[in-house]
Amino acid sequence: xxxxxxxxxxxxxxxxxxxxxxxxxxxxxxxxxxxxxxxxxxxxxxxxxxxxxxxxxxxxxxxxxxxxxxxxxxxxxxxxxxxxxxxxxxxxxxxxxxxxxxxxxxxxxxxxxxxxxxxxxxxxxxxxxxxxxxxxxxxxxxxxxxxxxxxxxxxxxxxxxxxxxxxxxxxxxxxxxxxxxxxxxxxxxxxxxxxxxxxxxxxxxxxxxxxxxxxxxxxxxxxxxxxxxxxxxxxxxxxxxxxxxxxxxxxxxxxxxxxxxxxxxxxxxxxxxxxxxxxxxxxxxxxxxxxxxxxxxxxxxxxxxxxxxxxxxxxxxxxxxxxxxxxxxxxxxxxxxxxxxxxxxxxxxxxxxxxxxxxxxxxxxxxxxxxxxxxxxxxxxxxxxxxxxxxxxxxxxxxxxxxxxxxxxxxxxxxxxxxxxxxxxxxxxxxxxxxxxxxxxxxxxxxxxxxxxxxxxxxxxxxxxxxxxxxxxxxxxxxxxxxxxxxxxxxxxxxxxxxxxxxxxxxxxxxxxxxxxxxxxxxxxxxxxxxxxxxxxxxxxxxxxxxxxxxxxxxxxxxxxxxxxxxxxxxxxxxxxxxxxxxxxxxxxxxxxxxxxxxxxxxxxxxxxxxxxxxxxxxxxxxxxxxxxxxxxxxxxxxxxxx
Amino acid sequence: xxxxxxxxxxxxxxxxxxxxxxxxxxxxxxxxxxxxxxxxxxxxxxxxxxxxxxxxxxxxxxxxxxxxxxxxxxxxxxxxxxxxxxxxxxxxxxxxxxxxxxxxxxxxxxxxxxxxxxxxxxxxxxxxxxxxxxxxxxxxxxxxxxxxxxxxxxxxxxxxxxxxxxxxxxxxxxxxxxxxxxxxxxxxxxxxxxxxxxxxxxxxxxxxxxxxxxxxxxxxxxxxxxxxxxxxxxxxxxxxxxxxxxxxxxxxxxxxxxxxxxxxxxxxxxxxxxxxxxxxxxxx
Amino acid sequence: xxxxxxxxxxxxxxxxxxxxxxxxxxxxxxxxxxxxxxxxxxxxxxxxxxxxxxxxxxxxxxxxxxxxxxxxxxxxxxxxxxxxxxxxxxxxxxxxxxxxxxxxxxxxxxxxxxxxxxxxxxxxxxxxxxxxxxxxxxxxxxx
Lengths: 643, 284, 143
Ligand code: SF4
Hints:
- The structure holds 3 protein chains of 3 kinds.
- Chain A is mainly alpha-helical.
- Chain A has one domain.
- Helix content of chain A is 70%, strand content 2%.
- Chain A has helices at residues 2-21, 25-48, 69-87, 92-109, 126-156, 164-183, 187-205, 211-238, 247-250, 260-273, 281-285, 291-300, 302-317, 321-342, 347-368, 371-402, 413-416, 418-432, 438-449, 454-483, 490-493, 501-519, 521-537, 549-569, 616-642; strands spanning 56-58, 122-124, 592-594, 600-602.
- Chain A has a two-stranded antiparallel sheet with strand order 1-2. Chain A has a two-stranded antiparallel sheet with strand order 3-4.
- Chain A is globular and about 85 Å long.
- By secondary structure, chain B is an all-alpha fold.
- Chain B has one domain (3-281).
- Chain B is built from 11 helices and no strands.
- Chain B has helices at residues 3-32, 42-52, 62-81, 86-105, 110-141, 146-151, 156-159, 161-174, 203-226, 231-251, 257-281.
- Chain C has a single domain, classed as Rossmann fold, CATH 3.40.50.12280.
- In chain C, helix 1 (22-31) links the parallel strand 1 and strand 2 (43-44).
- Classes of the chains: A mainly alpha, B mainly alpha, C alpha/beta.
- Chains B and C meet through helix 2 of B and strand 2 of C.
- Iron/sulfur cluster (SF4) binds at residues 19-20, 22-23, 57-58, 85-87, 92-93, 117-118 of chain C.
């Protein structure tokens, strides 16, 4: 097992190093595809050798410990941040990086860090398994997609200097760091991987190196460094505790009053990384990165590192004030982000808000911390990773072909790009079509909220009711646009033929994955997520998901309905696309309508964005303020209590 | 009788119930306007005729989506009576409504599109209420199924007066009654033409009508949940509520969607949310 | 073939061409409590996609030819046209006006002509009943 884990971490890093020196396109493509196959195979093998599913702890082969390597890495990261920031004239990031390095130096050289148990460096259980599969299957698919996407991206954005070499270097480096992050049991080691993902994200957001994107990159860096600083301070607080650096022991049960301040700081780290309010703005800025980056880092894996940590901490904070505050931050983020999504036209931003919202649900579930809700959280992690990655990739494909991200321009997509539409519809169905996927999770969450007593339970319920209705609204609008049809010109039909085979492959596999997960819902619950939730809380066995055959039928019909419909409809020709009612005036398929004085007018059908009822930026700012106050309260009270 | 049989019974009986209800509705409306009105079976004649007419396909996705609309609406009712978790029903109910929105929205006609967008607003306005209502009913009765609620000794309406009041309000939306008939209308010559259904002809329109029958039957079943100690009392309550809806329908004019959204959310938050909060605080 | 339900549920689309509005008032009178045609299942739909009978008052002019043709075309089969009033039948007192083309039958096939200036509600209802008979014939023919 330990060799496999080391391979999973080291192999992508080695590949990334090689990619840095390979500049020829064909060799790079072959290398990336080969490496992706190896990563996917290695993660599958790792999962299959995992055994009976009980938690495993192990160290490096030969019982070595990382020793001062952690400190060296910390120092390298800090120096890198300081240099890059100062080059760009930023001062906030270097201060935080320096503070982090100071803490690391103090802990390591001051001898305050207990020697890690060489047999407990890594922790592999069912949650790790889920994360390894997400990183090891979805990650490579996105890398393959990027081969096709980036070629066209450079073509349609010629002013951006080609930096594809560093792009793929960063993607693979990131994959290695993610594997390291999810298998670490030793907090200092985890924090190194944590920081590497931060830096990869920073560099990828700033990929185009325009004034604008560099600004967003630094926003992301600052916020994530704040979280990283929280992580460091938490380690500082924990350094005096026995087993303080052992994540599994730390989270074995409810944390005592002495540990809670440190837990709160770790939660802060998780909340920044998963872009919860008040830190959501960095994820929106991150949407300016190329779409594969958004798919990989900012929806399916890196932001999941944040919720992964929170889910890990869930048993420790369950029932405490810290847990409640985390839950409020998460659920309020879900509500506010969904509200803003309703007012947004840019499809990538809608996806970003939806991501923030879904992560908010997971954070909320982790904060309340019952076995049912942790079950819900892990379920959403799975659904969301696959379906949202698919959606981001599809939007990336559309963006390169239609030169737009505006939802309104996806009008009549079904006629223009039927197969891509079917893929988009699969993703959307996976995200929200009742009663599949996340909706099953929401349903279970509502059931669980009924058991939460007092003010909190009622509030969670109300937030959930409004939040999920809002998601119907913004997905519904997108669906309407995709499903409309008109007769198209031959040149429009050829647009779809220019989608590269890399993109087709990645998107189709993910779409099949969405349907597969729908079909295997019960199995996943019974064998993976359910046992994990029980083990995390040492709870009495119970059935989490009780699906009757009728419900399974309704669910499968629901998920296959729209994509099948799209494929079928695009082949039909016995209907009259021009023949819609416009008060008797002649309106043709190109949406020209006879108007007064013999002229013609173009018919434009524009979605509702609820102007005048919901003010997006106001909602965003108030959400940021409210969650900011809660979070500041949580951290400060913790620190004061501790002092 | 086992729950599955109740579910099947719903599929068969609900359209008859809903159709008759629509017939009574039209007669009562006519009487309120000093007219005699159509025969009781008029809605069935209409739907029958629609099946005998040509169905113009404007967009090939419309017909399957409308079949989905009827199908999921019937499934929602059948699953509810068939012993499925009630909260799950709220989501199937929303899916059924969404199918109608997509069918109308995917047509390029301005009227149909406006109707679809407004129906989406209606869905956004009413969905939180239905989730909260079903959750609250499950909470007070500690049951999760229809039969479970009926068997519970707790008198739901007495525990949830606020929710019941809000139901009256929100039902106006779901029954597409004025002033909340923003997405479609049976009355012609208005800014919307027929809104959602403007471009549906022949059997396509018949599907919408039938789905509406299922929907009314499901709403009736929801009212019965409130009066779980006596089903006849529940039916009576539904009759009274429906009569009120018809009266309001005949005496008000259509509201703007902004008002519909704001007022429904306010009512949901104040009455339903308040009631739910009280339940949780009192530890019921 | 099952029993035809058209006679129990004739839905009407009322289109006002170049009329003086006299006939339109009479058409609306049919809906009032005095005549209450809804007793016979008649609905004034306002939408060609839902209608069985196109009821036209007033004559055809240069500008509404396109409209009448579009409305007629958009009605699903079977369908009939009832021309109500002298104007709709032949152009009426406006027949010689510079912009008038004549009766409705200049642009779409008319099945029933209802005379009068203005046509009385009784005769309009009678025209609709005749229209239903024509509808029935068309349905049989296409079946
Ligand atoms: S027939 Fe007579 S009443 Fe009717 S529209 Fe013509 S002029 Fe007016």
